[in-house]
Amino acid sequence: KYGIWITLSSIIAWLSFFDIGLGNGLKNKFAEAIAKNEHEIARIYVSTAYISIGLISLLILLIFLIVNSFLDWTKILNCSPNYYYELKWLALIVVICFCLRFVFQLIGVILAANQKSAMNSLLDVIGNFLALLGIYICMQFSKGSLLYIGAILGVIPVLVLITANGILFTKNYKKYKPTIKLFNFKYIKDILRLGINFFISQIASLILYQTANFIIIQYLGPKDVTQYNIVFKYFSPIVMFFGLK
Predict the structure, then answer these.
(1) Using 50, 70 and 90 to split pLDDT, how confident is the model at 165?
(2) What are the contacts of 12-18 at 24+ separation with CB within 8 A?
(3) In a 3-state reduction of DSSP, which class is residue 80?
């Protein structure tokens, strides 16, 4: 079950690259506007990015709702047909949570652009801790349903991000609060002009790090995905150590 979950979440993660660099473009343009004290321009960039990615997320969700009825996730994930209905609902939950996270994670981009990366990381820590707590509670009262695991790992981090958006745009970043009135198509080009370079590097990262689980599950099965990921977790601190330099 863990192998199935890891592979499914990896496949859904591929959708994150549909922002075509809007997130990274916003980070640089927002920081530039703040440095020049152009706070109204910064708000326009924020509003344009939120609405653009919101529309992309809505489009992804609508397409998935249509396509999902024709997909057999047991064949895609190379697992028992007994999981057919469970995986269909799990995929729907994961995609809905992804689409919401796709939009609300922009608050992390704004924090990073404003030299508040520690606060952005804190949101991840809170989300992961609450998800871990939710998994522990789930272990005490259920038999490890994939639906429960998917709901916990998907919904809780999204709720943390939604709460952070509500608090920060009400207090610290009130003057940058996104609004549909400030959406400007012209500013999308400014964001994309810089963000497209990051998009290319993101695609390379996707090929390197996000395709292994899918290849393993297709040729070996879900159990081998579990073994691979456990070993990968043990070796990842070495990569983290070199990243500290």
Answers:
(1) very high
(2) 12/91, 12/94, 12/95, 12/98, 13/98, 13/210, 14/206, 14/210, 15/60, 15/95, 15/98, 15/102, 16/98, 16/102, 17/199, 17/202, 17/203, 17/206, 18/56, 18/60
(3) coil
Q: Using alpha carbons, select from 210, 233, 162 the residue that is nearest to residue 13.
A: 210
DSSP 181: G
Q: What is the pLDDT of residues 184-195, one digit of tens each?
A: 877 777 666 666
Give pLDDT tens digits for 77-94. 888 888 888 888 888 888
| Burial class, 61, CB count within 10 angstroms (exposed 0-12 / middle 13-18 / buried 19+) | middle
Please tell me the predicted confidence (pLDDT) of residue 166.
Answer: 92
Report the distance separating Cα 97 and Cα 91, nearest Å: 10
**Contact indicator for 104, 50 with CB cutoff of 8 Å:** no
Tokens of 129: 């801790």
Please tell me the predicted confidence (pLDDT) of residue 29. 82
Query: How many whole angstroms separate alpha carbon 147 and alpha carbon 111?
Result: 32
**In the chain, which ranges are E strands?**
none
